[in-house]
Specification:
Number of strands: 14
Helix content: 40-55%
Bound molecules: ligand ME8
Largest sheet: 6 strands, parallel
CATH class of the domain at 338-484: Mainly Alpha
CATH topology of the domain at 338-484: Isoleucyl-tRNA Synthetase, Domain 1
Length: about 500
């Protein structure tokens, strides 16, 4: 299936007010699994992540750190770049909103909106939360705070406004015509009822600070940070050059993955800005759930933000990636606990998958001269196992298309369990003396099944799956190799080594 439709996927661009934590790593890992899956499936992928560097929140953090915003953002952005390396992320680009390409892109978008009469000068009076970088209506406040619990500040100034109110009906029509635009369904319903309740025009410039993209031709005004931030997705594919190969190939984006906290910006403001500029909205926005840590919300005051480095040092990067995508139904909230992590590592990875690979590969090393065993005639039990492995790809395609990672992994582990049962039932160790040819066939079937499983696990545990494929002597590793490049009897194999170590409490 090479040459499939291009696929453009993005993470949110993270604020550089603070260091990365597991919440950021989570979204990025989920996108990475999708990007890797689509590449293995023969699609031309563009996978974007980056940092959101303008606005009051970042400016204040820089001030608190006692450095100018440029020095501050250069420093903190690097931590996010480092996180991509740490988590083994395969992004194709890393965008910073302070880059020249992005400033040019935002100014072009502004001019287009202005040219089309979508922006006007007015006076803003109302509540603003710097932590959320969001405006709130008096009616939305809960005990004098934003619904997120963030403090709000009153401000009044001359601002440019975007005619968001005029887009209410067209947004509703767009949601109606594109039922897959917002996922999961509960989020879609929330957004629709929010839009139905009426939209106010949106303030899109600020005059009381300067750390932002200058509004073209309007000295003293910088763009509202969300207009700037959302447009990163277009900048990275070449906007304003809508005729470029890159833009034509990848826009509209296939998927903006976000946390549920920022769904409104992505599904209301963003498609409205784009439609108003005569551009196409993205195809889909998926809002995943929220992690707590050992039952508690992550917060500065509790000091319980977990840096991804700590998890990787403790458990290993593949195990962390697996846990993140397997533990929760993607879209739901969940809890990050040491106990749950160890359960997944020792249960699924070490006992189930690791043990399967280890016993089959070591039997091959001992009894087949360290070569891929010979394949004799197949029995119905052999065909049943191989058939189950071959049926995985279409199932995984369907689950990945819906971002249902947990279901995709469940499907893979059903076959892991079937393979373990097969080995138990066929008992190749007993065949060694009675029927060595049949023993070889059984080991070939088991190894070939492991090859399928390892290829399909690459998006989630790339390093371990890669090592397993090395040990199987499997060179071709994309999905075309699933049916296309079965194990060749007689191929010399390296010495087997465990790829999913058990976690032992220290
Ligand atoms: O909102 N659980 O940046 P941000 C799960 N710059 N995911 C979490 C999480 C948690 N506890 N905490 C954070 C911004 N996240 C804007 C985005 S996009 C054009 C601009 C993840 O640094 C989740 O993806 O506050 C959430 O949406 C994102 O980090 C917020 O990152």
């Amino acid at each position: 299936m090479t040459g499939g439709r291009p696929y453009y996927i993005t993470t949110p661009i993270y604020y550089v007010n603070d260091a990365p934590h597991i919440g950021h790593a989570y979204t990025t890992v989920a996108c990475d699994a999708l990007a890797r899956f689509m590449r293995l499936d023969g699609r031309r992928v563009k996978f974007l992540t980056g940092t959101d560097e303008h606005g009051q929140k970042v400016a204040r953090s820089a001030r608190d750190a006692g450095v100018d915003p440029k020095t501050f953002t250069d420093r903190v952005s690097l931590n996010f770049r480092e996180m991509t390396r740490l988590m083994n992320i395969s992004n194709d680009d890393f965008i910073r909103t302070t880059e020249e390409r992005h400033i040019r892109s935002c100014q072009a978008l502004w001019q287009e909106l202005e040219r089309r009469g979508e922006i006007y000068l007015g006076h803003y009076k109302g509540w603003y939360s710097v932590r959320d970088e969001a405006f709130y209506d008096e009616s939305e406040l809960v005990n004098g705070k934003a619904p997120s619990g963030a403090d709000v500040e009153w401000y009044e100034e001359e601002n440019y406004f975007f005619r968001l109110s005029a887009w209410q009906d067209r947004l509703l029509e767009f949601y109606e015509k594109n039922p897959n635009f917002i996922a999961p369904t509960a989020r879609r319903n929330e957004v629709i009822s929010f839009v139905k309740s009426g939209l106010n025009d949106l303030s899109v410039s600020r005059t009381s600070f300067t750390w932002g993209v200058p509004v073209p031709g309007k000295p003293g005004h910088v763009m509202y940070v969300w207009l700037d931030a959302l447009n990163n997705y277009q900048t990275a594919v070449g906007y304003p050059d809508t005729e470029s190969e890159e833009y034509k190939t990848f826009w509209p984006a296939d998927l903006h993955m976000v946390g549920k906290d920022i769904i409104r910006f992505h599904t209301v403001y963003w498609p409205a800005f784009l439609m108003a500029a005569g551009l196409q909205p993205p195809r889909r926005v998926f809002a995943h759930g929220w992690w707590t840590v050992e039952g508690q919300k992550m917060s500065k005051s509790l000091g319980n933000f977990i840096p991804p480095q700590k998890l990787v040092d403790q458990y290993g990067v593949d195990a962390v990636r697996y846990f993140m995508l397997r533990e929760l139904p993607f879209g739901s909230d969940g809890d990050f606990s040491h106990r749950a992590m160890v359960g997944r590592i020792n249960g699924d990875l070490a006992n189930d998958f690791g043990n399967l690979a280890q016993r089959v590969l070591s039997m091959i090393a001992k009894n087949c001269g360290g070569r891929v065993p010979a394949k004799g005639p197949l029995t119905p039990a052999d065909d049943a196992l191989l058939g189950a492995a071959r049926r995985l790809l279409p199932r995984l395609r369907a689950e990945y298309a819906e971002q249902a990672f947990h279901k995709a992994l469940e499907a893979v582990f059903e076959v892991v369990a079937a393979a373990n049962r097969y080995v138990d039932e066929q008992a190749p160790w007993a065949l060694r003396k009675t029927d060595p040819a049949r023993m070889e066939t059984v080991l070939w079937v088991a190894a070939e099944t492991i090859r399928h499983l390892a290829i399909l696990m690459q998006p989630v545990v790339p390093t371990a799956a890669g090592k397993l494929l090395d040990q199987l002597g499997a060179e071709a590793r994309d999905f075309a190799a699933l049916d296309g490049a079965p194990l060749v009897p007689g191929t010399a194999l390296p010495k087997p080594e465990g790829v999913f170590p058990r976690y032992v409490e220290g």
